[in-house]
Amino acid sequence: MKKDDTSSSEVLIDIEDTSTTIVESDIKFDTTPPISLPDTSVTPKQSFLTNKNTVNFLAGGISGSIASVVTQPLDVLKTRFQSSAKIYNDAATKQNFLLKIIDSLKITAKTEGLHGLFRGLIPNIAGIFPSRAIYFATYSGTKDLMSKYCGLSSDSPLVHIGSAAACGVVVPAVMNPMFLVKTRIQLDLYKPNSSRGSNTPNYNGYMDCISRIYRDEGVKGFYKGLTASFLGIFETAIYFVLYEQVKRMALKSTSSSEGETPKFTPLTYITVSGGCKLVASAITYPHEVVRTRMREIVDGKCRYDKGMINAFKTIAIEEGTKGLYSGMGAHLIRVVPNTAIMFLSFEFITHFMEKHYGTGKTTH
User: Fold this and answer.
1) What are the residues facing 301 on neighbouring strands?
2) 3-state DSSP call for residue 298?
3) Which of the chain's ends, N or C, has fewer CB atoms near its CB within 10 Å?
4) Can you tell me the distance from the alpha carbon of 312 to that of 291, in angstroms, rounded to the nearest whole number?
5) Cβ pair 132, 60 in contact under 8 A
6) Are 238 and 287 contacting, i.e. CB atoms less than 8 angstroms apart?
7) 223 and 177 in contact (C-beta within 8 Å)?
8) What is the pLDDT of residues 265-292, one digit of tens each?
9) Where are the Solcar repeats (predicted)?
């Protein structure tokens, strides 16, 4: 009987030992450090909005659209003043260009209503949003690439010029068709030597304009004025070199203590961006007139379809220097607030995104 008890006890001990071993094994397995998941758990929204190039793209499109809507009436006037058709003959007798603009706005509102002041807004917005988005994204991207691969400082004027040149090539090449439609719509209803109010529109809306350009002029027709647009590279380069340098100096002057992050007020943004645009536009303005003339159709014909150089010569011979600078007053009154509003909006949007979504520092 004792032997049996001992045998039973040994079996019991063996079973307990085995059980204990299993429990210890389980404990070791459970205490293994888990894989850390929070480091990779970034939501799609955060990933999308924290990309610097994406933010530049969106901010550029939104800010450009806001500025375009606000200044659209002046854009209509600018295009019509640049045209070879003497649309505002009554207003043209005014010596003061501000009075010319005010009278022209009154004439447009009286003869065409509110719609007339915003002619071409739809193709303008359709062109402005992607063009400004491409504009800022291209400038920022080129600036980063030149800094990285050319060994140049991001504040170098050469980087600013190279980045501006990239904008000046990419944007017109992509968006010229849309802006050509905008110009045609803004100049529609008017023909030289016809009495005001007796004109009928050439185009029954935007789609009719697009289809007729394609039918009568082919794909090539959508790219009229492109070579003159490329001359805008000089305006863009001058503007960005001035803007970057003046902004940097202004930021330094606004820093009250060492180590403090300098900040701009809205008024400073408006002054810096608007002032730089005024200088750049005044220097390079004639290409704007040539571009409009190359795009316009008068009595079913384009007088300036023999190339950019020929257009420059024709305007200079027939109208002199005054012709090359026609509409500059309206252009400057429009482009300065347009640029100020656009860059103020751009800075606000990018800083907002940086603050709330941790977006990397944007460059522009």
Assistant:
1) 298
2) strand
3) N
4) 10
5) yes
6) no
7) yes
8) 778 878 888 889 899 999 999 999 999 9
9) 51-145, 155-249, 268-352
What's the pLDDT score for residue 203?
85
CB neighbour class for 287 (10 Å; exposed up to 12, middle 13-18, buried from 19): buried
Strand-pair partners of 298: 301
Taking alpha carbons only, the member of 230, 60, 240, 64 closest to residue 137 is 60
What is d(CA 49, CA 223) in angstroms, rounded to the nearest whole number?
34
Class of domain 52-353: mainly alpha
Rounded to whole angstroms, the Cα distance separating 75 from 341 reads: 15
- List alpha helices for 52-96, DSSP H: 52-82, 89-92
What backbone torsions phi and psi does residue 323 show, to the nearest 5 degrees? -65, -40
Q: Are 103 and 94 in contact (CB under 8 A)?
A: yes
Token pair, residue 44, equals 């799609």
The model's pLDDT over 199-242, given as tens digits with 9 standing for 90+, comes to 567 788 889 999 999 999 999 999 999 999 999 999 988 998 89
Count the Cβ atoms, other than its own, within 10 Å of residue 26: 10
Q: What is the pLDDT of residue 219?
A: 95
C-alpha to C-alpha distance for 107 and 119, rounded to whole angstroms: 14
Alpha carbons 348 and 342: distance in angstroms, whole number: 10
Torsion angle of alpha carbons 29, 30, 32, 34, nearest 10°? Answer: 130
Q: What is the pLDDT of residue 84?
A: 81
Q: How far is CA 36 from CA 14, 33, 41, in A?
A: 40, 9, 10
For 298-334, b/e burial (b = at least 16 CB within 10 A) is: beeeeebeeebeebbebbeeeeeeebbbbbbbbbbbb
Cα torsion at 62, 64, 66, 69 (round to 10°)?
Answer: -140
